[in-house]
Amino acid sequence: MNRYRVFTVIFVAMFVLVACTTSPTGRSQLNLFSGSALNSMGTDAFAQIKEEEKVSTDRELNAYAQCVANAIIDILPEQYANNNWEVVVFESDTINAFALPGGYIGFYTGMLRVAENEHQLAAVMGHEIGHVMADHSSERLSTNLLISGVLIGTDIALSDRSPQQRGMIMAGLGITSQIAVALPYSRIHESEADAIGLELMAKAGFQPQEAPKLWENMAAESGGSPPELLSTHPSPSSRIRDLSARVPAAMRDYEARVAAGNLPNCPRPRKLDNTDS
Fold first, then answer.
1. Conformation bin of residue 211: beta by default, left when phi > 0, alpha when psi is -120 to 50
2. Vertex 65, ends 105 and 247: CA angle to 5°?
3. What is the CA radius of gyration of the chain?
């Protein structure tokens, strides 16, 4: 069975060598998917979401989300700013938002209500666009593919063991891979998107000190979260602490924008204060 172990090692090594890229924060990544493939996936996914979710026709809410998005899109690197971004508000109390490769942004009205002002909304939008800029979708798909390849190779290498032994070993490896690789990777992605998003909102002219306040609101709304070790997201306290530590550096970008003038003007609709609307 040694040849299968050797094959697995060579397979993993080739993947890592061929697909090594660097994120906007300088972190090494595993990236096996091309931009065009991801954009196509994003287009298909957004179309499906629009079919499954109720798209808001409220002109004021859509204009609010579009205004914040436009301010951030204007300061994106050219390869992202040139996307024909589509921004859609979904009518749901779900506290969620997302951005997809190819230039798609979705916001739920529940999130619009939790964000107390345009600055906090910009923090969310910058965070979601940060996921796109850092190719987190590709990285997650690549990591899952790599884990699957290793598990398959291991299963082949264990073919001389009894079915019971193989089952126990593979089950243990599956759990270990989730805790040791997949979940921490998700937390890394979230923290990286927070850092990118904070920089984007500040450069666009939104107040960076509002980002930690947003996550304080989110923590209050969540009413509790799973232990950070078993969560795909950093704990609210970790997130607030890390963002607060980054605010002084982000303030320099914000103050430069203030000095240059032309700050965004995206007043929050008053109807969002009314939970019955």
1. alpha
2. 85
3. 21
Question: With contact defined as beta carbons under 8 Å apart, do 246 and 252 qualify?
Answer: no
- pLDDT for the residue 123: 97
Q: How far apart are CA 13 and CA 202, in angstroms?
A: 40
CA–CA distance, 5 with 162 (Å, rounded to integer): 18
- Cα separation, 166 vs 8, whole angstroms: 17
128 is catalytic: yes
Which one is catalytic: 118, 128, 139, 190?
128
* Vertex 234 angle, CA 228 and 240, to 5°: 125
Amino acid at 50: K
Q: What's the predicted TM-score (pTM) here?
A: 0.76
Please state the φ and ψ torsions of residue 187, each to the nearest 5 degrees.
-65, -35
266 vs 117: CA distance, rounded Å: 9
Written as six digits, the tokens of 33 are 């998917």
Q: 3-state class of 105 per DSSP?
A: strand
Place of tokens 């910058």: 126
**For residue range 143-177, what is the model confidence (pLDDT) as tens digits?**
666 666 555 555 556 566 666 665 654 455 455 44
The residue ranking higher by pLDDT, 264 or 183, is: 264
What digits encode the pLDDT tens for the residues 88-133?
999 999 888 998 888 999 999 999 999 999 999 999 999 999 988 8
Angle at 149 between CA 148 and CA 152, to 5 degrees: 85
* Beta strand residue intervals within the chain, DSSP E: 20-22, 28-30, 86-90, 97-100, 104-108
What letter does residue 23 receive in the DSSP assignment?
-
